[in-house]
Each structure stands twice: as C-alpha cells, then as structure tokens.
Amino acid sequence: MTDAAMIAAISIFTAGLTVSFGSLGPALGEGRAAAAALNAIAQQPDSASTLSRTLFVSLAMIESTAIYCFVVAMILLFANPFVDQVVQATQSAAG
Amino acid sequence: MTDAAMIAAISIFTAGLTVSFGSLGPALGEGRAAAAALNAIAQQPDSASTLSRTLFVSLAMIESTAIYCFVVAMILLFANPFVDQVVQATQSAAG
Amino acid sequence: MTDAAMIAAISIFTAGLTVSFGSLGPALGEGRAAAAALNAIAQQPDSASTLSRTLFVSLAMIESTAIYCFVVAMILLFANPFVDQVVQATQSAAG
Amino acid sequence: MTDAAMIAAISIFTAGLTVSFGSLGPALGEGRAAAAALNAIAQQPDSASTLSRTLFVSLAMIESTAIYCFVVAMILLFANPFVDQVVQATQSAAG
Amino acid sequence: MTDAAMIAAISIFTAGLTVSFGSLGPALGEGRAAAAALNAIAQQPDSASTLSRTLFVSLAMIESTAIYCFVVAMILLFANPFVDQVVQATQSAAG
Amino acid sequence: MTDAAMIAAISIFTAGLTVSFGSLGPALGEGRAAAAALNAIAQQPDSASTLSRTLFVSLAMIESTAIYCFVVAMILLFANPFVDQVVQATQSAAG
Amino acid sequence: MTDAAMIAAISIFTAGLTVSFGSLGPALGEGRAAAAALNAIAQQPDSASTLSRTLFVSLAMIESTAIYCFVVAMILLFANPFVDQVVQATQSAAG
Amino acid sequence: MTDAAMIAAISIFTAGLTVSFGSLGPALGEGRAAAAALNAIAQQPDSASTLSRTLFVSLAMIESTAIYCFVVAMILLFANPFVDQVVQATQSAAG
Amino acid sequence: MTDAAMIAAISIFTAGLTVSFGSLGPALGEGRAAAAALNAIAQQPDSASTLSRTLFVSLAMIESTAIYCFVVAMILLFANPFVDQVVQATQSAAG
Amino acid sequence: MTDAAMIAAISIFTAGLTVSFGSLGPALGEGRAAAAALNAIAQQPDSASTLSRTLFVSLAMIESTAIYCFVVAMILLFANPFVDQVVQATQSAAG
Amino acid sequence: MTDAAMIAAISIFTAGLTVSFGSLGPALGEGRAAAAALNAIAQQPDSASTLSRTLFVSLAMIESTAIYCFVVAMILLFANPFVDQVVQATQSAAG
Amino acid sequence: MTDAAMIAAISIFTAGLTVSFGSLGPALGEGRAAAAALNAIAQQPDSASTLSRTLFVSLAMIESTAIYCFVVAMILLFANPFVDQVVQATQSAAG
Amino acid sequence: MTDAAMIAAISIFTAGLTVSFGSLGPALGEGRAAAAALNAIAQQPDSASTLSRTLFVSLAMIESTAIYCFVVAMILLFANPFVDQVVQATQSAAG
Amino acid sequence: MTDAAMIAAISIFTAGLTVSFGSLGPALGEGRAAAAALNAIAQQPDSASTLSRTLFVSLAMIESTAIYCFVVAMILLFANPFVDQVVQATQSAAG
C-alpha cells in the first residue's frame, strides 16, 4: 500500500471513530440536562424563561464538545494537512 | 489487495461503525429526555405546551449528534474524498 | 482472496454489526420512554391523549437512529457503491 | 480457502452475532416497558385498557429493532446478494 | 483444513455463541417483568387476572427474541444453507 | 491437526462456553423474580398461592433460555451433526 | 502437539472456564433471593414457613444452572466423547 | 515444548483462573445475603434464630458454587485425568 | 512506509482519539452540573443569579479539560513539532 | 525456553493472578457485610452480640473463598505437582 | 523506522492519550462537586459565599490532576528529554 | 532471552500486577465499611466503642486479602522458589 | 531499534499512562468528598470550619495517591535509573 | 535486545502500572470514607472528635494499600533484585 493510501485509510477510520465516539458523551449529557430542565419547569412553571435560558446555554456548552469532534472529522476528510505533505515527501523521495 | 479496495473496505466498515455506535448516545439521551417530559406533563398538565416546546428543542439538539454521524457515514459511502485521490495517486505512480 | 470477495466479506460483517449494535440504544431508550409514559398515564389518566402524542413523537425520534442503521445496512447489502467501483478498478488494472 | 467458503463463513458468523446481540437491547427495553405497565395497572386499574394499548404499541415499536436484526440474519443466510456475485466474479476470473 | 470443516467449525461456534449470548437479554428482561408483576399483584390483588394476562403477553413478546436466536442456532446446526453450497463449489472447483 | 480434531476442539470449547455464559442471564433473572415474589408474599400473605403460581410460571419461562443453552451444549457433545459430515468429507477427499 | 494433547488441553481449559464463569450468575442470583427472603421474614415473621418454602424452590431453580455447568465440566474431564473419537481418527489416518 | 509440559501449563493456569474467578460471585452473593440478615435481625430481633437458620442454608447453597470451582482446581492439579492419557498417547506414538 | 508517513498516520489517529475521548468526561460532567443548576433554580428562584454565576464558573472549569484535548489535537494536526524533526533526521541520515 | 522454565513462568504468573483477582470479591463482600453490621448495631444496640456473632460467621464464610485462592497460589509456588513431573518427562524423553 | 521516528510516534500517541484520558476523571469529579455546590446554595442561600469558596478550592484541587496530565503531554511534545538522548546515542553508534 | 531473564521478567510484572490489582477490592471494601461506621457513630454516638471495635475487626479481615497479595509479591521478588530451580535446570541441561 | 531507544519509548509511554490513569481515582474521590462537604456545610453552616478542616485533610490524603503517580512519571522522564545502566551494559557488551 | 534492557523495560512499565492502577481503589475508598465523615459531622457535630479519629484510622488503613503499591514501584525502580542477578547470569553464560 502506498503512503498516500495509508494516510487516507487512517483518516477515514479516525474521522468515523471521532464523530461517533464523540457523540456519546454530549448526547448523554444533553439528555440529562434536558430531563432536569423539564422536571424543573414542571415544578416551577413561573421560572420557565429563566430555566429555558439556562438550559440553552448549557446545551450550547455541552454541544461544543461534539462540535470539536465534528470539526476534527471534517478537517481529516476535507482539509487534511498531512496529505499534501506526504505526497510531497513521496515526490522528494522519488525525485 | 489494491489500494482502492483497501480504501473501500475501510470506508464500508467505518460507515457502519459510525452510524451504529453513534446511535447509542443519542437514543439513550433522547429516551431520558422524553421520559422526563412525560413525567413532567403528568405532574403539571397545564404547562404541556411549554414542556413540549422545550422537549422538541432538546430532542433536536441531541439528534444533531446522531445526524453528524449519519452525515459522515453518507460522505464515506457516496462522496469519499480519498477515493479519487487514491485512484489518481495510483495512476500517477503507474504513469 | 480477490478484492471483490474482500469487499463482500467486509460488507456482510459490517451490515450485521451495524443493525445489531444500532438496535441497542434505541431499544433501551424507547423502553425508558414507554415506561415513563405508562407511569404518567397511570398518574394522570386525564392527560392520556397528550401523553400518547408526546410518546409517539419521542418514539419516532428515537426510532430514527435505528432506521439510520437499518438503511446503512441495506445500502451495504443491496446498493453498495464500492462493489462496482472495485470491479472496474480490477478490470482497469487487468485491462 | 476459496472465496465462496470465506463468504459463507463470514455470513454464518455475522448472522448469529446479529440476531444474538440484537436481542439484548429489545429484551431489556421490553422488560422495562412491561414492568412499568404492570406497575401502572396495579396503581390505576381503571385505565387498564389505555395502558394495555400504549404498552402494545410500545412493545411493537421496540420489537421492530429486533425484527430488523432477524431480517438481516435471514437475508445473510438465505438470500445473500454477495454469494452469486462472488461466484460469478470467480468464474469470470477463471474464464 | 478443508472448506467444509471450516464452515462446520464456524457454524458450531456461532450456534453456541448465538444461543448463549441471546439468552442474556431475554432472561434479564423477563426477570424484571415478572418481578414487576409479582409486586403489582401484591399491591392490587383484585386485578390479578388482568395483570397475569399482561405479564404473559409481555413474556411471550420478550421470549420471542430468545426464540429467534434458538431458531438461528438450529438452522446453523441442522439446516445450514452454506454446507451444500460449499460442497458443490468445492466439487465444481475440483471438477 | 486433522479436521476431526479441529471440530472436536471447537465443539468442546463451544459447549462449555454456551452452558456457562448461558447461565448468567437466567440466574440473575430468576434471582430477581424470586426476590420480588418473596417481598410480595411478605407484603400480601393472603395472595401467596396466586403469587407462587405466577412465580413458577415466570421461573419456567426464564429457565427455558438456560435449557436452550444446555440442549445446544449436549447436541454439540453427543449428537454433533458435523462430525460425521466432516469424516465423510475427509474420506471423499481422500477417496 | 498431537491431536489428543490438543483435545486434552482444550478440555481442561474449558472445564475450568465453565465451572468458574458458571458460578457467577447463580451465586449473585441466590444472594439476591436469600437477601429478599431474609428481609421478608423480618417483615412478616408469621409467614416464615411459606417464605422458606418459596426460597428453597427458587434456590433449587437457580442452582440448577450452576449444576448444568458442573455437569458439563465433569463430562469434559471424565467422559469426554471426543477423546476416543480422535484417537480412533488418528489411528485410522495412520492405519 | 513436549505435550506433557503443555498439559501441565494449561492445567496450572486453568486451576488458578478457576478458583480466583470462581470466588467473585459467591463472595459478592454471600456478602449481600449476610448484609440482609444483619439488617433483618436488627429490625426483628425476636426472629433471630429463624433468620440465622435461613442465612446459613443460603450461605451453604451459595458457597457450593465456590466449592465446585475449588474441586475442579484440585482435580486439575492433583488428579488430572489427561496427564496419564497424554503420556500413554505419546508413548504409543513413539512406540 | 516512510518515517514521515508513519508520523502523519499516528498524528491523525491520535488527534481524533484525543478530541473524541476527551469529550466524554466534560460532556457528562457539564450535563450533571447543568442538571443540578436547573433543579436548584426551580427550588430557589430567588437565587437564580448566584446559581447561574456559579454554574458558568463550573462549566468553564470543566470545559477547560475539553479545551486541553482540542488544543493538543490542533497542535498534532497543524503544529506538530516532530514532523520537521523527523524530516531533518531523515535528511541527515540520507545526507 | 526449556519446559521447566515454561512451567515456572506460568506458575508465577498464575499465582499472582489468582491471589490478586481472588481478593476482589471477598473484599467487596466483606465490606458490604461489615457495613450492614455497623448499621444494624447502630439501629439496634441491644442485639450487638447476636449481630457480631452473625457478622463473624459471615466474614469467615466469605473469607474462605479468598483462602482457597491463597492456598492454590501457595501450592503453585511451593508444592507444584507438575514441576517434578515435567522434569521426569524431560529426562525420560532425553533418556 | 529510525529510532528518532519511533520516539516521535510514541510521544505523539502518549501525549494525546494522556490528555484525553486524564480529562475523564477531573471532568466527572468537578461536575459532581459543582452539582453539589448548586444544590447546597439552593438549600442554604445565606452560606453562598462559604460554599463558593469551598467549591473553588475543591475545583482547583481536582483540576490539578488534569493539569499534571496536560503538563506531561506538553513535556512530551515540546521538551522531550529522550529525543536528544536518542539522537546522541544514534550518532555515537554511527560514530 | 535466557530462561533466568524470562523468569525475572515474569516475576517483576506479576509482582506489580498482584499488588496493584489486589489493592482495588480491599480499598473499596474498607471505604464502604468505614463509611458505614461513621454514619453509625453519628446515628448512635453512645455505641461508639462497640462500633469502633466492630469496624477494626472488619478492617483487619478485609486488609488480610491485601496482605496476601503483598506477601505473594514480596515472595516473587525476594524469595522466588523458581529462580534457583531454573538456574539448576539450565546448568543440568548444559552440564 | 537500539536498547536505549527501547527504554526511552517504554518510559515515555509509561509516564503518560501513569499520570493519566492515576488521575482517574483521585479526581473522582475528591469530587465525592467535596460534594459531601458542600452538602454538609449547607446542612450545618455552624460547623463550617470543622467541615472545611476535615475536607482539606481528606483532599490532601486523596491527592497523595495522584502525587505518587506524578512523581513516578517525573522520575521516569528525568531521572530514569535504567537509562545509564542500559547505556553502560551496551558499552560493556560492545567493549 | 539484551536481557538487562528487557528487565529494565519490564520494570519501568510495571512500576508505572502498579502505582497508577494502585491509586484507583484507595482514592475511591478514601473519597467514600471522607464523604461519610463529612455527612456524619454535619449530622452530629458533638461527636466531631470521635468521628475525626475514626476517619483518620480508616484513611490510614486504606492508604496502606496505596503505600504497598508505591513501595513495590520504588523497589522495582531503585532496588530491583533481578537486575544484578540477570547481569551475573549473563556474565556466567558468557564466561
């Protein structure tokens, strides 16, 4: 297998692993936060707006870790800095 | 095995792994959020509309991490950026 | 083993893994949501219709992640984009 | 080992794995839903018919993920699309 | 090892794995459902018949996933579709 | 190692694995059901006969999955359908 | 390593694994049932005889899965059906 | 490595594994049963004798699975039926 | 595979692993903190501002560990100190 | 590596594994029993002697499984029955 | 692969593993501490300042273990003591 | 690698594994017992001396399993019975 | 790979593993202790100073195990006793 | 790799593993004991001195298992009994 194919294979596998494994924690954490928000609104309907605002800030904060993973996966698939590097290295080795 | 076949095999395996593993967290998180919403509505039926709205926003937020995984799997299967690359690399190596 | 057989073997294994692993989360999540709905109806029988509607929306949302897995498995078995590709690559290599 | 035997071995193993692993989640989820239904009926016997209906819809929904796994296993054993393909590929390679 | 022996070995291992792993979920789920039924009958003895009926439907539903596994194991041991196939493939290869 | 020895080794290992792993779920499930029955009898001694009957039906249902495993293990040890097959295949290959 | 030694090694390892792994579930399940019985007797001392009877039936049922494992281990060590078979197969191959 | 040494190595490893792994479940189960007995005696000191008797029967039942493991380990170390067998098989092969 | 390609492959895999695994703990921890905050606000709406401030400080503290992981992943992808080093080492070895 | 060294290596590793893994269950079980005893004495100080006696019997019972492991480890280190056997087998093979 | 490349690869992998795995415990621990603080403030708003101070000291203490990991990762990437050492060793071996 | 070095390597690894893994159970068990003792003293300060005595006996009992592990590790490091044995076996083989 | 490089690689990997794995337990334990302290202060604000003092002693005790890990990692990176040893051994072997 | 380097590598890895894995249990156990002590002091401030004394004895007892691990790690790094042994064995083999 050529070096470029190796890099491609690793990048594909890592991208999938990153985005799938990286969805585990945020999804569970958001589920917990949302469940608490729903219970809280049921308990104190008058504070619904405060609770919603707090929930959305929290969800955004938790979602950010999932976004990191998605961004890294996209970088690996579409803007992988090592692909050109390896191509050049191969060429300079062959040059 | 040729490089293209290797890339194909990795892509197939990663696509399946991504979408199946990536469904674990969101499904559990959504189940938790939905359970909390149902309890909350039973406890405070008057706030059902507020609770439903909060639930749907939360479900959408959690579902988004599953969507990321599905999108990555679809990209790997139908728009894999490395497939053409490797084909070209192979051709240029053979050229 | 020829390349086509390798792709076939990987696709078969991945299809089974995807659909079986992908059923774990949704089944547990739906079980939790359904359990909460049943408790809620028992607690507040008057809101049964609201609760049922909320439950069905939630179940559909959770089931969607299982559907993603089933779709990917079906694509791998019956509409695998890499099978033709590899066949052609093999032919062009042999051509 | 010939390619056809390899495909057969993978298909057998995957079919068993799929149906056995795929029974874990649904069985646990259905157990949870049924337990909740039994508690709910004991708590509110007057709503038994509503609760039963909700339970059966939920069980059907959860069972569907087990059915997906069973269907995939049956396809792998009795209607495997890759078996003919590989046979033909082998023949064309030998032709 | 001949192909037929390989298929036999895989089938034996898969049959055992399928039926043993496939008994984990249903047994736990049935245990949970039965426990809930017993608590419910103790709490509301007047509804014993309704509760028993609901329990038996639930047990049957859960048991079905174990039955799937047992059926697949029996198919693998006594009606394995790949055994004849492989024998023929071997013969045609040797023919 | 001859094919027959290979089949024997796999059968022995699978038989042990099946019966030991297959005892995990039923034992835990039966323990849970029995515990619930004992609590229920203590709480409602007048319904002891109904509770006992329900318990025994449940135990039988749960035990059935352990029986499946034991049956498969016995088949593998004493009525293994592949043993004769492999012997014949070996003979026909040597014939 | 001769075939007979291989069968012996596999049988020894499987016997130990079977009996040790097979003791995990029954021990935990019996512990749970016994704990429930002790709580129940403390709560309702007048029903001690009914509770003891129910406990013993349950323990026997749970213990049965451990017995299965012990029986299989003893068969593997002292009445292994494959040992003679393999010896004969070896002799007929050498014959 | 000679066959006898291989059998010895496997027997040593299996004996240790059996007795150590086999102590996990019984120890946890006995701990649970004992804890329940102590709580029950504290709650109902008048039934201490009944509770003690029930506890001892339960402990004996649970301990039995640990005894199985210890017996198998002792058999493997001091009365291993395969050791002589293999020695004879080796001699007859060399004979 | 050249050294540079090896370094590239390891860096890609590590970057994905770091950011995905590193999102598990923070997401769960933030979910817990947010859930507690929502419950607390519902319980004591008058202290909402104090609670929000405490929540945001805590979220920032927890998020910092996810940031560490993201930073390390970015360093590995875009400012990897070993890439130049290895290139130079290779050149000096070839020089 | 000579056979005797192999047996020695396996014995050392197994002895350590046995005694360390075998301490997990008893330690946890004893901790649970002791915790229950302490709670029970606090709740019913008048029964302290009965509770202590029950606790000590239980601890002895649980400790016994740890003793089994320790005994097996000591046998493996200082009275290993296979060591002489293998030495003799080696000598008779060389004889 | 040259020694320097090997050291680089190990350092990269270890740095990522260290910082990602090392964020799991602190993030969960801080989440727990923050959740307790929020509950405590809601319960006793008058002690908010004491509680905040205690929380910040605790968070700093917990964060310190994450800092250790980050420091080690940075040392491995940017001030690795073995890199120069190995380079010199290689040179002295080549010298 | 010589036999003595092999034995040394195994002994070092096993000693570390034994003492570290063997500290897991006792530490958790002692933590639980100590926690129960502290709660019990807070609940019933008048029985502090009885509770302390019971706690110390329990801690000693639990600690004993950790001591077993430490003793085995020390034996492996400083009084390993196999080291001389192997040296002699090596000498007699070379003799 | 030279011996020195091997020692360096192992040291780097072990240092990272030690400090990251060693942060898991202390972080969780400190989180639990801090959470209990915060609850306790909210419950009994008058004892805040006693509680703080007890908390800090406990945190120091728990932190000490993390410090052990950090110290070992630093020793491995900057004062590794085996590095000189191996260099000397290599020189004496080459000498 | 020379024997001495092998022993060094194993010792380094084992030392790190021992101290890091050995900190898991004690840290969690101490966290639990400290949490219980803090709750107990809040509940019964008058017994603070008795509770503190009991806590410190318990912490010392639990810490002892972590100390065992640290001692073994230090022995492996700085007073390893096998290092000289192996050196001498190597010399006598070369002598």
From TrEMBL, chains A, B, C, D, E, F, G, H, I, J, K, L, M, N:
CDD domains assigned: ATP-synt_Fo_c (cd18121)
Positions bearing the site annotation: Reversibly protonated during proton transport: E63
Keywords: ATP synthesis, Cell membrane, CF(0), Hydrogen ion transport, Ion transport, Lipid-binding, Membrane, Transmembrane, Transmembrane helix, Transport
Key word Ion transport present: yes
Biological source species: Halomonas aquatica
Keyword Transport belongs to the record: yes
Protein name per its UniProtKB record: ATP synthase subunit c
Membrane topology, as annotated: Multi-pass membrane protein
NCBIfam families according to UniProt: alt_F1F0_F0_C, ATP_synt_c, PRK13468.1
Function: Key component of the F(0) channel; it plays a direct role in translocation across the membrane. A homomeric c-ring of between 10-14 subunits forms the central stalk rotor element with the F(1) delta and epsilon subunits.
Domain V-ATPase proteolipid subunit C-like: 13-76
Pfam families in the cross-refs: ATP-synt_C (PF00137)
UniProt record similarity statement: Belongs to the ATPase C chain family.
Membrane-spanning intervals of the chain: 59-79
Gene name in the database record: atpE
Signal sequence, start to end: none
Subcellular location: Cell membrane; Membrane
